[in-house]
Specification:
By secondary structure, the protein is α+β, with helices and mostly antiparallel strands. Helices cover 21% and strands 32% of the residues. Pfam families: MaoC_dehydratas.
Length: 154
């Protein structure tokens, strides 16, 4: 499923096995520089072209947490959690599998792994796997980020 119906979606709208794919977003040099400035993470692999060229990746790459943040932003743009999301519960089994380079266009695949209602009954937990993909199909990052979400009004 690429284009979900407009949101918000509530707990009852989800079922294990659903897959959503976001639009793409190109990672720019400005993204990396801004993230470095905001976080104070100025490691040369992100900020020094000459030193990064000598390193493992041969050029500057995006911060791992910038990739995760972009994945979350892309999922947010699906619109299905606007007005129903309560809180992120964890980041689990997150893996940084391939570098994200300046100019890479990434998309995020969201898979619903599980759905369960909380004991209070007014909300539930979505077990979700996010996969951040580069345009060539390379998996850059992947992990689970469960979400506490509202149940629809009974």
């Amino acid at each position: 499923m690429t284009a979900p119906r407009p949101g918000p979606w509530f707990l009852e709208d989800f079922e294990p096995g659903q897959v959503f794919t976001t639009h793409g977003r190109t990672v720019t040099e400005s993204d990396i520089v801004s993230f470095a400035a905001t976080t104070w993470d100025t490691n040369e692999v992100h900020t020094d072209s000459a030193r990064a060229a000598e390193g493992r990746f041969g050029e500057r790459i995006a911060h791992g947490l910038l990739g995760m943040s972009i994945a979350m932003g892309l999922v947010s743009r699906l619109g299905i959690f606007e007005g129903s999301s309560i809180a992120l519960l964890a980041v689990e089994e997150w893996r940084f599998l391939a570098p994200i380079r300046i100019g890479d266009t990434v998309t995020c695949r969201l898979e619903i792994l599980g759905v369960r209602r909380t004991s209070a009954g007014d909300a539930g937990v979505l077990d979700r796997r996010l996969t951040l993909l580069c345009a060539d199909g390379t998996i850059a990052q992947q992990g689970r980020i469960p979400l506490l979400i509202k149940a629809s009004a009974a």
